[in-house]
Structures are given as structure tokens and as C-alpha cells.
Design brief:
Blueprint lengths: L15 E8 L9 E6 L5 E6 L5 E5 L4 E9 L3 E10 L5 E4 L4 H7 L13 H15 L3 H11 L6 H14 L3 H14 L4 H13 L3 H14 L4 H15 L2
Parallel strand pairs: 1-7
Antiparallel strand pairs: 1-4, 2-3, 2-5, 5-6
Helix pairs in contact: 2-3, 3-4, 4-5, 4-6, 5-6, 6-7, 6-8, 7-8
Length: 239
């Protein structure tokens, strides 16, 4: 079972499906790039240029939750935010500004501007991801539980904890974490798929089917969800 967000294959000749903008940018954007990575393991998926107006385009982007970095080559990170992306949806990255301006920005719909991580939260999530990528799931879980104490990291800590618990066969705590994650990030198909899998393992097939169908509503190409729905329907047919 796949626990990370859907993969992305960059294709610069494809029709862009996501338009993006960087708000409150007041410096030269020459050579700036947006790097999109998976939230689960930090794997880079796509790298696109920033236009002079501060806009950018992402190609062939499946719905899901991703890390977006604004970088200046060779590797200076200027801004990092988490974005929950849907097909055809405009996304915005917000450069730091005055408290009043930031308060206004926080009223933007979660479908447009997604739960920005503080620098502290991003550091905690990256540390947990590095342990997970190295196969040290116990240490990753420990770091993610610490991240629950950082408010900006809470949605992503719940999401990643659910995946880590599934990987280590701890189904009950996985379900509990994923239940909280889907409340905070309701438009992420990978979360609904993971919750459906946890419910399936616990024999809650009716709720599992509801969640897997929600995952497929959000991303009909979600392969893990497609497979799980097949298992559920097959089991129902054998009863």
C-alpha cells in the first residue's frame, strides 16, 4: 500500500493544470524557481521557473498535499510552504509581511492558501521525514509526536504519523491520527486513501468504502485507492 502523496511526472509541454502566484514579492524574480516535493519523504517532483510578475505554473499535478519551496540557485531557500492542491485551483504563496497583512492573508480559503508552516514546524517535519526515509520509523514517530506541539505543523504531523503507524503495523493509532488529519486537510486524496486502508484492516468495510470513494472523487487516478476499492468490492461479493 502506498502511503505518500500521488507521484508527479513533470512535462513542460503539457497543459498547465495549476496556476500559482507569490504574494508580496518585492524583489527581482530573475532565476527564482519553485520546487515541488512530496510531504512524506521530501522527494522533489517538479521544478518550474517564476515569471517576472511573481507567477508560476505547475504541470500534471495530481491533487494532494505538497511542499513548495521558492529557491534561488544554486540552493538558497527563500520561502517554504505546504500546499494542498486541487486540479485547476489557483494557489498562493505569501512572503512574510507585517502582522496585519499576515492576519488578512490567513482568511484566504484553505483551497487557495494552505496551512503555512513556521520555520520551526518545517524543521521538525523535515527531521521526521529524514528518519522515515532512512527506515527509522520509531524515531520518525517520536519526532512527529514532538511536532504536534508546534501549531503550524499539526495537520502534517497527524498525516505523517498515520502513514508511519500503517508502515509499522500499528493500525489503531494509524486510524486515530488519520481521522484527525482528514478533518484538517479534507481535500487530500492520499489521506482519505490511507484512512480507508486503516479502516479496511480493522474490518470497517462500510466506512472504508466511503473514504476510498472520497479519495477517488478527489483524484480518480489514485492507484492505491483503486486497488483498495477492488478488494472491498471483491470481499463484499464473496460474502
Amino acid at each position: 500500500m502506498e502511503y505518500s502523496a500521488p507521484g508527479l511526472s513533470g512535462n513542460m509541454n503539457a497543459q498547465p493544470v495549476v496556476q500559482g502566484e507569490i504574494r508580496n514579492i518585492n524583489f527581482d524574480t530573475t532565476d527564482l524557481m519553485i520546487v515541488v516535493s512530496t510531504l512524506a519523504d521530501g522527494r522533489p517532483l517538479e521544478r518550474v521557473p517564476v515569471e517576472g510578475s511573481g507567477t508560476f505554473q505547475l504541470y500534471n499535478m495530481p491533487p494532494g498535499t505538497y511542499s513548495l519551496k521558492l529557491i534561488r540557485p544554486p540552493g538558497e531557500t527563500i520561502l517554504e510552504q505546504i500546499a494542498q492542491i486541487g486540479n485547476g485551483q489557483m494557489i498562493s504563496l505569501q512572503m512574510p509581511d507585517s502582522p496585519a497583512r499576515n492576519a488578512a492573508a490567513s482568511t484566504v480559503s484553505a483551497d487557495q492558501l494552505q496551512h503555512p508552516l513556521s520555520s520551526k514546524g518545517a524543521k521538525m517535519i523535515r527531521k521526521a521525514q529524514s528518519y522515515a526515509a532512512a527506515g527509522d520509523h520509531a524515531q520518525a514517530i517520536d519526532e512527529l509526536r514532538k511536532a504536534l506541539n508546534e501549531p503550524s505543523a499539526v495537520p502534517y504531523a497527524h498525516s505523517l504519523l498515520g502513514a508511519e503507524y500503517l508502515k509499522t503495523g500499528q493500525v489503531a493509532p494509524a486510524e486515530a491520527e488519520l481521522e484527525q488529519a482528514v478533518q484538517l486537510l479534507p481535500h487530500d486524496p492520499a489521506l482519505h486513501s490511507n484512512l480507508a486502508y486503516a479502516l479496511f484492516l480493522r474490518g470497517e468495510n462500510e466506512r472504508s468504502e466511503q473514504e476510498v470513494r472520497k479519495a477517488l472523487e478527489l483524484d480518480h487516478n489514485n492507484s492505491p485507492a483503486q486497488k483498495l476499492l477492488g478488494y472491498i468490492l471483491k470481499q463484499r461479493g464473496g460474502q
